[in-house]
Every structure is written in C-alpha cells, then in structure tokens.
Amino acid sequence: MSSKAARVRRAVIAVLSLLGVALIVTAAAVELFGLDLTPGFGVLQTLAFLVGVTTLTIAIYLWMNASRPPDTPRSLQADIGLRLSLTGLVFCYVAGFADLIRIGTHVQPEFDRPFIGPLQLGGLVFGLLVLVSGMALFYTSRGKRAASSMEFILNGKK
C-alpha cells in the first residue's frame, strides 16, 4: 500500500474514532446539560449512541485490518468474529429501538414517548458484549502468524 493510501486510512480511522466517541459522550451527557426531552434515555439519544457505536466499530475494524499483512487470507475465526460483532451491533439496534418497532415495553398509548427502560438497557449491554467478543475473536485470529492464536484449544499447543 502506498504511503498516501496509508495516510488516508489513518485519517479516516481517526475521524471515525473521534466522531464515534463524541456521539457516545454527547448521547450520555445530554441529561447533564438539561437537554433531555424524555425521562431516561430518549430516541434521539439512542440514535446518537448507536451511530457512535457503529462508527467506532468501523474504525476499530479498519485499524485491525490495517495491522494485518495485505497478502494474508482471513481465517475462519476472523470471519466468525466479524459476523458475531455485526450480529451484536444489530442486536443493539433492535434493543435500542424496540419501542419504535413495537416490541418494547414502553409503547403508545400508555406512554407518550418511547424511552429505554431496564430491559432494553440489558439488551443493549448484551449486544455490546457480543460485539466486543466478536472483535476479540477477530483480533486473536491468524494475522501475521502462520496459525491462529486459539489453536491451543484444538490440539493443546502453546
């Protein structure tokens, strides 16, 4: 890869990382500034939080791909890790917007505005744990090594 392409990749990773962190912090800190419209975590806060998590996830995967040699094929473990983390991301979106897609516990007409309750928060946390475990699988997969770092599970090697 040329140095210009590497610089562009680093710039994209930095911008996505900063944008993701800024969106997550802004969504979490809205209540401190008194700008929240609903009790608890509202829909716009949820959207900002999830878009922040998505951009941060993309930035992390771009960084992990950049750290691998370009001619190394992706292992099955890396593919499973990528799919697992994207499944966790989808789970976060479904849990975050459960009220809007009418599967949550705070739907109209009993509640004027949807907001994230304890069940949805648990779903978000579970989705984030699945996302992070997928990233860990991707990161520990064969990169520059000839074999996966998880090979000790299969045949007891160190």
Explain the overall architecture.
- By secondary structure, this protein is mainly α.
- It has one domain (3-155).
- The protein is built from five helices and no strands.
- It has helices spanning 3-29, 43-66, 76-96, 118-140, 151-155.
- α1 (3-29) runs antiparallel to α2, α2 (43-66) packs antiparallel against α3 and α3 (76-96) packs antiparallel against α4.
- The longest helix has 27 residues, at 3-29.
- It is flat.
- The model has no long low-confidence stretch (mean pLDDT 83).
What are the salient characteristics of this protein?
mainly alpha, flat, 158 residues, 0% strand, single chain, 63% helix
Q: Could you state the order of secondary-structure elements as H and E?
A: HHHHH
Using the CA coordinates, give the radius of gyration: 19 Å
Mean pLDDT: 83
Q: Can you count the beta strands? A: 0
In which range does the helix fraction lie? 55-70%
Number of domains: 1
Oligomer: single chain
- Sheet-strand content, in percent, reads under 5%
Shape: flat
Structural class: mainly alpha
What characterizes the major β-sheet?
A: none
Spatial separation of the terminal alpha carbons: 33 Å
Which parts are unreliable, with pLDDT below 50 for 5 consecutive residues or more? none
**Secondary structure tally, helices:** 5
Walk me through the topology.
Layout: H1 3-29, H2 43-66, H3 76-96, H4 118-140, H5 151-155
Helix pairs in contact: 1-2, 2-3, 3-4
Concise structural overview:
The chain has 158 residues and is mainly alpha-helical.
